[in-house]
Design goal:
Layout lengths: L19 E6 L3 E7 L2 H17 L4 H22 L7 E8 L3 E7 L26 H8 L2 E7 L2 E9 L3 H4 L1 H4 L1
Antiparallel strand pairs: 1-2, 2-3, 3-4, 4-6, 5-6
Helix pairs in contact: 1-2, 2-3
Length: 172
C-alpha cells in the first residue's frame, strides 16, 4: 500500500531483473539494494541522473553526479564486493534543501585510503584505471569515504548552486 509520501520506484533497465532486491521511496529519499553486477551499476547511474534532474541541477551537473555515482558503484561492485553474489551494494539518494546526498555502501573488506595511487603522478598518467576516486572528488562538492571491516561507505554531496547559495543574485 502506498501513501502520498511513499511509493514504489522502477529503476530504468531493471524492470524485469532479479538484481534489484529492495526499493523504497519517500518524498525526498530513494534507497535500494543491488546485486554486485555491472548491470546494477547502470541502474545506479540512471537513478542518479533522474534524481539530479528532478532536484533541478543543470545538465552538466547531472552528468557529473551520474558519473560520480557510476564510478563509486563500480568501485563497490568490483573492488569492494569483488562480484560476490552473496554481497550487496546499498544506495541511498536524498534530496535536501542544500542539494543531493548520495550514499553507497559495499560489503567488502574495506579500503586502505593510503594505498590509493595518485592518478596525476607521472608514473600513473598512462594507466587505464585508477582514476575513480579522483574523478568522484572532482565532480562532487564533498566526498566522505568511511572504510571499515564490514565494507566501505562513500557519501557524495552536490550542493545546489543558485541565488540562495551563491549570494550574488540574492543581494541584487
Amino acid at each position: 500500500m502506498c501513501t502520498h509520501d511513499s511509493a514504489l520506484v522502477i529503476i530504468p533497465g531493471l524492470e524485469n531483473s532479479s538484481s534489484l532486491t529492495v526499493i523504497t521511496m519517500s518524498q525526498n529519499r530513494v534507497s535500494y539494494t543491488l546485486d554486485s553486477t555491472l548491470e546494477t551499476v547502470n541502474s545506479a547511474e540512471a537513478t542518479a541522473s533522474q534524481m539530479a534532474a528532478d532536484a533541478g541541477f543543470a545538465d552538466d551537473d547531472v552528468m557529473k553526479i551520474a558519473m560520480a555515482v557510476r564510478e563509486a558503484a563500480v568501485n563497490a561492485v568490483l573492488h569492494g564486493n569483488a562480484y560476490d553474489p552473496g554481497k550487496k551494494v546499498k544506495l541511498e539518494f536524498e534530496q535536501t534543501s542544500r542539494g543531493l546526498v548520495i550514499t553507497i555502501r559495499d560489503q567488502g573488506k574495506g579500503i586502505d585510503l593510503n594505498a590509493i595511487p595518485d592518478p596525476t603522478a607521472p608514473e600513473n598518467l598512462l594507466k587505464t584505471s585508477g582514476r575513480g576516486i579522483f574523478l568522484i572528488r572532482s565532480f562532487m562538492d564533498e566526498v566522505e569515504i568511511n572504510p571499515s571491516q564490514a565494507g566501505t561507505e562513500i557519501k557524495l554531496i552536490k550542493h545546489v548552486h543558485g541565488s540562495a547559495a551563491g549570494g550574488k543574485e540574492a543581494s541584487q
